[in-house]
Design brief:
With 347 residues, the protein is mainly alpha-helical. Helices cover 61% and strands 6% of the residues. The protein has a three-stranded mixed β-sheet, with no helix packed on it. Helix 5 packs parallel to helix 8.
Length: 347
């Protein structure tokens, strides 16, 4: 018996009367909320409107769920269409089985539709939501824990996952918790994208491409540890090949995009206030006297100390104009000070 291990839940569903509350579904829903919340904060910081991310997510999330399920059913069709299987099970999403590759691909299509309807550049939106998607994946992987699925090879490490179910060909025992490995990796990917985006001001879809590339690296070695049935090509699991191809495409996009379109988008949402506009505003009343002196000197065309006396005259005119400005902005006290200064000058 193992002295330390990660226990599996005794059940993955609770019933509220006749309504089933499934842990797998809860993890996905919480992940979506996290992605929208963080994406909204990043979108507003980029100069977009609050709520736009959620509006587009209304398109992206359903498309993503359909895409994720389609990828799983197509790549594991024997689970649903082989002899002795019921094809109706292909629609039972709550039992697990969402392929991230299909979810991202079709989810991006839904996001593109939503972004196009609002006149928003899709790459800018993708950059804003990229870290949130990674955190949503980190949360969603715990749904596999509730379903006791997608674990790795047998092990005796202290953090081994204890599988207790024997359904679906499972063999009770202690295995590598690949769901946990991928969850932690996705958290690291989210932090990497946030840091890189702040450090290098990534735009035009490059932050999203970085998320894709970084996720593929982790998915490759985690996939290699899994023991569930999968199609193999030249000795590698199908998802390993997918991760390799997508990684190369993401890196190529980052390189080409950085050369052709450096920097960030100036405007991410039409009609929305741009980020950082407050820094360009001039504060009212900031050094009015000095500003008046500078303007008067420029208009006079001379510098203090010129040999022909032009600079002295410019300085006098500048002083007069500065005193007038100060008098108008400061009230009676400043006016009295102006009169005293004028008397002193005549003396």
């Amino acid at each position: 018996m193992e002295l330390a291990y990660i226990p599996s839940p005794s059940r993955g569903v609770l019933y509220l009367g006749p309504i089933p509350l499934r842990g797998y579904a809860f993890c996905i829903i919480i992940g979506v909320f996290i992605a929208v919340w963080l994406g909204n904060k990043r979108w507003v910081a980029r100069g977009g409107r609050s709520g736009t991310v959620a509006d587009i997510a209304v398109w992206a999330v359903p498309f993503g769920l359909v895409g994720g399920r389609l990828y799983h059913v197509i790549t594991d069709y024997e689970l649903y269409f082989s002899e002795g299987r019921d094809w109706v099970d292909a629609f039972k999403v709550w039992e697990g089985g969402l392929g991230i590759w299909g979810a991202i691909a079709l989810g991006a299509l839904g996001a593109w539709i939503g972004a196009r309807r609002r006149g928003i550049p899709m790459p800018a939106y993708a950059d804003a939501v990229a870290p949130g998607i990674a955190l949503a994946q980190a949360m969603g992987r715990w749904g596999n824990w509730f379903n006791q699925e997608l674990y790795g090879r047998e092990t005796h490490v202290p953090w081994a996952l204890h599988i207790t179910s024997s359904e679906g060909g499972r063999v009770p025992g202690y295995y590598h918790p690949t769901f946990l490995y991928e969850s932690l990796w996705c958290i690291g990917v989210a932090l990497l994208v946030i840091w890189a985006d702040r450090r290098f001001k990534m735009g035009h879809g490059r932050a999203f491409a970085l998320y894709v590339a970084a996720y593929c690296v982790g998915r490759a070695w985690i996939e290699y540890m899994r023991v569930d049935d999968a199609h193999h090509i030249l000795g590698l699991r199908l998802n390993d090949w997918t991760a390799l191809i997508v990684f190369l495409l993401a890196v190529a996009y980052i390189v080409v995009s950085a050369r052709k379109r450096p920097g960030r988008e100036a405007v991410v949402e039409p009609g929305a206030p741009g980020a950082g506009t407050a820094a360009t505003e001039v504060e009212a009343g900031d050094e009015d006297g000095n500003a008046a002196v500078g303007r008067a000197a420029d208009e006079a065309g001379g510098e203090p100390g010129d040999g022909d006396g032009t600079g002295a005259k410019a300085e006098d005119r500048a002083g007069d104009r500065a005193e007038d400005t100060a008098g108008e902005s400061a009230g009676p006290d400043a006016a009295a000070a102006k009169d005293e200064a004028e008397s002193a000058r005549k003396s």
